[in-house]
Amino acid sequence: xxxxxxxIWFTGKIPPSWLHSIVVPVAKPNQxxxxxxxxxxxxxxxxVCKLFEKVVVCRLSWFLEYxxxxxxxxxxxxxxxxxxxxxxxxxxAIQKSLGNKHNVLSVFIDLEKAxxxxxxxxxxxxxxxxxISGRMFRFIHLFLSNRTFQVRLGYTLSLTKCLENGTPQGSxxxxxxxxxxxxxxxxxxxxxxxxxxxxxxxxxxxxDITLLNRLCQRSLFKVYNWCEECGFKISSTKSAMVLFxxxxxxxxxxxxxxxxxxxxxxNEY
Length: 269
Description:
The protein is α+β, with helices and mostly antiparallel strands. The protein has seven helices and ten strands. It has helices at residues 2-11, 47-66, 83-99, 120-129, 134-144, 174-181, 209-230, and strands at residues 20-27, 39-44, 103-110, 148-153, 156-157, 161-162, 193-196, 199-206, 240-244, 264-265. Helix 4 (120-129) runs antiparallel to helix 5. The longest helix has 22 residues, at 209-230. The chain is globular.
């Protein structure tokens, strides 16, 4: 493994088999079988490549943590961090606000097909901006370039197609690359925010619900603008807002995306 590692570092070449994957569609439960969206694509790739990716991830993670590059709002795929970290932060804000007879308006954003929508060129430019260069950058660039895949149904394989956009599905390296891609998202808004991989949430606290609506709307527009710049799309059906209040009859609120779509309101608490 060490000889293979040194060979790739110094020659800058990746075996073609590492860049190819077999996609197997797996049916989602309780979904109509005639719709393509009812299947979850599972990519089968080289196990040796995944082992090499783990080496790269270890080195890259150390670099990001040592230089404190990753946003403090991000808890996904980081050592000694987990999902409950961000949940507890929001829970703490809600408890304190309700204890002071205030309200909390929270917005939960879902990015549509987030990993598949990653712009490779923009990702590579962000890596350089964060100081990731040299052999590490060269390997990531080669790893994302000239990728191919085939779809397998039973014993039948489709024609080979090129993966033009997004990070490889099922790759060990993809999660940390995606975290770097959206690392600057929390900086775009002034509202408190929490990230776990591609799950994004921000909120505002205060006594005036109308003001909270206005502040969250401003942050939502900034998130929408960031998505437009980076090639992502907010899923209006999966994104939602929740009002945490003790008022029995709060004033009506509404949050709208720039395309005119209204976010759905979940149950008020």
